[in-house]
Amino acid sequence: MHSPDIQLNYLIEQQWPTAQAGGHFFTLPGLSGQSVRIDSGQGSLLARRAPGSPIPFVDRQREYRLLNKLQASQLAPRPLGWREPWLLLPWITGEVLSEAEFSQQREAVVALLQRLHQQPLTGYRLSLTPLLQRYWQLCQQKHWRWQRRLQRLVKVGEPRPLRLAPIHMDVHAGNLIMTDAGLRLIDWEYAADGDVALELAAICAVNPAQQQEWIATYAEATQLIPAVLQRRIQQWQPWLQVLMASWYQLRAEQSQDDTLEQLARASWQDL
From CA 80, how far away is CA 86, in angstroms rounded? Predict the structure, then answer.
């Protein structure tokens, strides 16, 4: 089995020393891209390549180390190897949730998050101020609404964490797989130590119609006061709004993708 990439071949050979040529490589869809499925008679693997253009906070070596730290929790896939620019992971077999199933599986998703948020800190702290400033530096098009909102947020300062814990920061239907053993979370590239209320704010942003249900379910599971959790989520929402718009703007410029350009324009209009 051979890939045009020497570093990826090295990682595959460490896992499958006796693999024969003739395996198959499939580029996977996704807004970030850079992921490849590798199939052979010995099974399947997932290879995640470092982005060709920089995306703030995305670092495959950091992702590899963080996933290793979470192994005791059995919440994250076990990293098989890292060799610049590739991270090698086992392929998780199952069905990706639909948007409807994401809402229907709310209690199961919250149970996963509760376990994650109870894990020891990883040592990788997420701070949105330098992250947003880095997006500003990297983007070519800088909307005046962006500058005004960013300056306002920096002046006020980030909300104090309600609870500091390991958070995934990209929980949505496409990153949840129903396996024979239950739900599994994938795509941990934005995971770090952060406020659990920020995690919930991000979920509510992708499922706004059920915001109150997410807040109530999580608050009950974690013994938080719903009104307190909701207030902290509201404090994080302006930060998250700028973060999402910044991500769309940068990725649209890097990829020239029409869908991302439309999402970026819509995000700035929302500001």
Answer: 11
CB 28 within 8 A of CB 35: yes
Looking at residues 183-196, what average pLDDT do you find? 96
Beta bridge partners of 165: 194
Read off the pLDDT of residues 240-265 as tens digits, 9 standing for 90 and up: 999 999 999 999 999 998 999 999 99
Structure tokens at 178: 């129903």
Segment holding 44, helix H or strand E: strand 43-49
Give dist(CA 245, CA 131) in Å, integer: 13
Confidence tier at 40 by pLDDT (50, 70, 90): confident
166, 119 Cβ separation under 8 angstroms: yes
Q: How far is CA 115 from the centre of its chain?
A: 17
In sequence order, which residues have a C-beta less than 8 Å from that of residue 46 and are 6 or more positions away?
35, 36, 37, 38, 77, 88, 89, 90, 91, 92
Beta bridge partners of 36: 27, 47
Going 270 to 246 to 29 to 103, the CA torsion angle's sign is: negative
Q: What share of the chain is helix, strand, coil (3-state, %, to 5)?
A: 50, 15, 35
Find the mean pLDDT for residues 45-65.
93
Distance CA 130, CA 154 (A): 10
**In 3-state terms, what secondary structure has residue 40?**
strand
* 59, burial (CB in 10 Å: exposed 0-12, middle 13-18, buried 19+): middle
The DSSP secondary-structure symbol of 49 reads E
